[in-house]
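Researcher: Can you fold this with adenosine-5'-triphosphate in place?
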Amino acid sequence: MRLEVSDLAIARGGIPVLEGVALALDPGAALVLRGPNGIGKTTLLRTIAGLQPPLAGRIAGGGERIAYAGHADGIKPTLTVAENLSFWARVFGGGAIAPALDAYALSDLAARPAGALSAGQKRRLGLARLLVTGRELWILDEPTVSLDTAAVGMFADAVRGHLGRGGSALIATHIDLGLEAGALDLTPFRAVPAPLAADDFDRAFA
Ligand SMILES: Nc1ncnc2c1ncn2[C@@H]1O[C@H](COP(=O)(O)OP(=O)(O)OP(=O)(O)O)[C@@H](O)[C@H]1O
């Protein structure tokens, strides 16, 4: 199914951030969101993932198809690496955990409590979770934070495999992942603050 976003306006903390956002993502395709710090990439991904409502506009083809990986890994620290993956596989009704462990070189760490992993290992576990969800549309916010070069390669391979199986991915990142992907710079969609009315201006200095 195609994700289609049209004329979307979004806010963070009550302040409009982006407006008029339009994008489309077909099965088998990836789209990378670009733009400077603070432009609204996280806010847009959260809105498409259904974690916050838009101010206006339309999102079609998202919902239950989405697996979202944000800045927080969502890892349960007292469960082992394998138990974390099994937990998510059960929650999502998804697949086997062995390929996910393999894809992120986590097999040797499978019995380790997740709370005792390094930052990069935790991130690998958070990304491995996507593989057991069975969800078609991955929405990923800065997925490569804390990853070394080898792990970035594992992630890029995992995304390629996902796209090859007919999945799709919407990714906010500042780095080049070496993927065949479209890119959307959000800068032109920056919300223009409404000009102060004369009364407001006077009140501000009252
Ligand atoms: N909890 C919050 N309350 C109010 N405003 C916020 C909050 N979180 C972020 N913002 C503001 O919302 C705007 C959009 O933030 P957002 O995190 O979506 O940007 P981003 O493009 O993902 O940035 P980065 O590249 O730094 O991750 C920024 O101006 C930011 O300062």
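Model: Folded with adenosine-5'-triphosphate in place. The pocket of adenosine-5'-triphosphate is lined by residues 12-13, 17, 35, 37-43 (CB under 6 Å).
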